Amino acid sequence: MSRESRERIPPAVRRITLITGHYGCGKTNFSINLALDLRAHHDRVTIVDLDVVNPYFRSSDYREMLAARGVHVIAPVFAGTTLDVPALSAAVPAALRSDDWVIVDGGGDDVGATALGAFAAELSGTDYDLLYVVNRYRNLTATPSEAEGVLREIEAASRLTATGVVNNSHLQRETTAQTVLDAVPFGRDTARLLRLPLVCTTVPAVLLTDGAGRKAAGSLENAYPVEVYVRPPWEPPTDDDER
Fold first, then answer.
1. What is the pLDDT of residues 49-72, one digit of tens each?
2. End-to-end CA distance of the chain, in Å?
3. Using CA atoms, how far apart are residues 5 and 27, in angstroms rounded to an integer?
4. Distance (Å, rounded) from C-alpha 209 to C-alpha 222?
5. Which conformational region is residue 213 in: left (phi greater than 0), alpha (psi within -120 to 50 degrees), or beta?
6. Cα dihedral angle (232, 236, 241, 243), rounded to 10 degrees?
7. DSSP 8-state assignment for residue 4
8. Which of these ranges, 77-91, 183-197, 200-214, 220-234, has the smallest mean pLDDT?
9. What is the pLDDT at residue 173?
10. CA torsion through residues 155, 160, 165, 168, sign
C-alpha cells in the first residue's frame, strides 16, 4: 500500500515543532513523516536539519524526495558530507519568523541540542512544541528514568523545555506489532515521569497491511502510522522501502 493511496493525519502539533531525542531513537524518520503529512494539510512546510553532529540519518539526506513532495529543506552548509561543522544558515531564523509550518530535526543528545540553543532567544517569543522522541530498545533510554536523564541534558543544552513525548520504540527491520505493543507501557510511564503528554505512539505503516498490525494500531492511544524512510547506509533496501 503506497503512502499516496491513503490520507495520513499528523499528530496535533504547533506551527513550529522541534524534534529531539537520543541517537538511534528514530527522530529523523519521525521528522520526515511529520513534515510530509503536514504538507498534505498546509501549503508551506519547511524542515530544518540541525543535526550538525551525526553525519548519518539526517533529514537533509532526503532533500530530493522532500522537495518533490513540496517540503522545503534548510540544512547546515556541510550537510550531506562527513564534515560536522555547525555552519547554520541565516535561513533558519527567517523560517521561524515566517508563516510556514516548520519542523526542526535537532541533534541526538546534549551536544547536538546546543544547535537548538542557538535559536532559543528566537523561539522564546513563539508558541512552539519540543517533542522528545524515545525508543525503549536503544541503549541509555531503555527505562523511563534513563530517558528522563537524557532529556534533562538536552533541555539544559538547548535552553528549551519539552512539551510532549513521542513513543517511537522500534527494532528497525525486526519491528513487529508485538515490538510496538511491548513498548506501550514504557511510553506511558516515560510521559508520566516527565509530566508531559504522550503525543503519539508510532507504528510502521507496513505492519498495517496485516491483521496483527491493524489490531495493534487499533489498541493504541494516539497511534501514528509512519513510513520507514531512514535506513542505515550499510543496510540494503527492500521492496517495501520508499524511494
1. 887 655 555 666 788 899 999 999
2. 14
3. 24
4. 19
5. alpha
6. 90
7. G
8. 77-91
9. 86
10. negative
Do residues 173 and 235 lie in contact, with contact meaning Cβ atoms separated by under 8 Å?
yes
72-to-12, 48, 88, 109 alpha-carbon distances in Å? 21, 8, 16, 25
Specify whether the backbone of 26 is left (phi greater than 0), alpha (psi in -120 to 50) or beta.
Answer: left
Closest to 104 (Cα-Cα) out of 120, 84, 125, 85: 120
Residue recorded with cell 487499533: 218
Q: What count of residues does the chain have?
A: 243
- Residue type present at position 181: L
Residues 219 and 181: beta-carbon distance below 8 Å: yes
Give pTM, 2 decimals. 0.88
DSSP 25: S
Q: Which of 205, 142, 201, 136 is nearest to 171 (CA)?
A: 136
Residue with cell 518533490: 68
Identify the helix (H) or strand (E) that includes residue 147. helix 144-158
